[in-house]
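Board notes, transcribed. Complex of a protein with guanosine-5'-diphosphate.
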Amino acid sequence: MKPVVALVGRPNVGKSTLFNRLTQTRDAIVADFAGLTRDRHYGNGRLGKHEFIVIDTGGFEPDAGSGIYKEMAKQTRQAVAEADVVIFVVDAREGLSAQDHDIANELRRLGKPCVLAANKAEGMHDGTKLVDFYELGFGDVHGVSAAHGQGMRDLVELALAPLNLADPDDEEDEDDVNKPIKLAVAGRPNVGKSTLINTWLGEERLVAFDMPGTTRDAISVPFERNGQRFELIDTAGLRRKGRVFEAIEKFSVVKTLQAIESANVVLLLLDATQGVTDQDAHIAGYILESGRAVVIAINKWDAVDSYQREQIQRQIETRLPFLKFASLHFISAIKRQGLGPVWQAIAQAHKSATRKMSTPVLTRLLLEAVQFQAPQRGGMFRPKLRYAHQGGMNPPVIIIHGNSLEHVTDAYKRFLEGRFRKEFDLVGTPLRIQFKSSQ
Ligand code: GDP
Ligand code: GDP
């Protein structure tokens, strides 16, 4: 189990920057104004040979009486509860503030080991500016610069030291079966992504607030089911906020795309009560382009009658024909109905996407297919298909060699695809077939 490190501190001290530095990703939004990163962020951190999970938190606001601030405080508490150690981040340039004291008190109440990091300390060679922070009562103050990557190794080593970690070199290599399947739940706003994820995880993990100025960034949550490890990548992006926060909205689109990119399998969630909208089709298009394995789940099945059910199934056929390879599931996240088969489909999609296909078997199938039905002549030339080999995985790519292959029709390509899919039991993954003609 990777240790969990939570980053806590008031807004703008550089938690997200530190998070990015530790996880080496752009998983958190860094912007020049307070309060943009209000959700919890999970990321995989690595420093030297140590791997850990980092949580970036919204932090405790001083006046956490109501609304979003109360929710942030709740989320932060939950993150701290899950963490093995807390990195308490303060701002070396602004110096000690009343809010820092409040957070210190809260952290003391929660009773987790804490390391105090004074960020933005680049260029501060004497420690005089840091002395005040001893008042917080967390022992040594470590000057770091998240933006410049200074003091990171010491900070992480200090944070992890009390945890008595086993040397990762001593651990056996994990086999593929135990690698987490990275799963992204993609869908437009309100289809029920958070509801489904909360149902899955059995606890509130996402800030359920939906008010202008808050973004719900992609987060990643590791968990296990039936011995299979998953890493859930939520994509709460693509959220329209009127015209006010366009930059944020655009950013959410990017984050959805990034989440799709970094996933092994994408669960595309649709809303049965709304049918298939343009936005659904866009997202589906992105997924297709990414080449990721995909499972489609139509949520809110509990809330539609049989007429609507028929209608949405027809819409999926007509509006998302390019995802025909994906299996289709009807679920209710709220009523916890139909969820089991979705897990099976996800595992199957992943298996299909990573299937190994040997050259002899591919070539035999190809020649059998040709014998069953030869490709049509194109002008003076009849395409000659000679042999096939696998050109890639995730998605699987089959490369077919021969002559005059530029004359192979789309219909014939689909015929071949069908044969290969059937033979290798490929469900839920795109299959790319490429032709290479030799002279
Ligand atoms: P958060 O609200 O605590 O997550 O803070 P952010 O990571 O969003 O950072 C707030 C601001 O501080 C941004 O403008 C960052 O570029 C800046 N910042 C973060 N780390 C450093 C640092 O090490 N040095 C300096 N000078 N600025 C930093
Ligand atoms: P997200 O924006 O995709 O994360 O969607 P939410 O999870 O916030 O859900 C949007 C709304 O749909 C909420 O009011 C949920 O209660 C509702 N909802 C989610 N799942 C279901 C479901 O299975 N059935 C019904 N009837 N409503 C649902």
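The chain is about 35% helix and 20% strand. The pocket of guanosine-5'-diphosphate (ligand 2) is lined by residues 187, 189-195, 236, 299-300, 302-303, 332-334 (CB under 6 Å).
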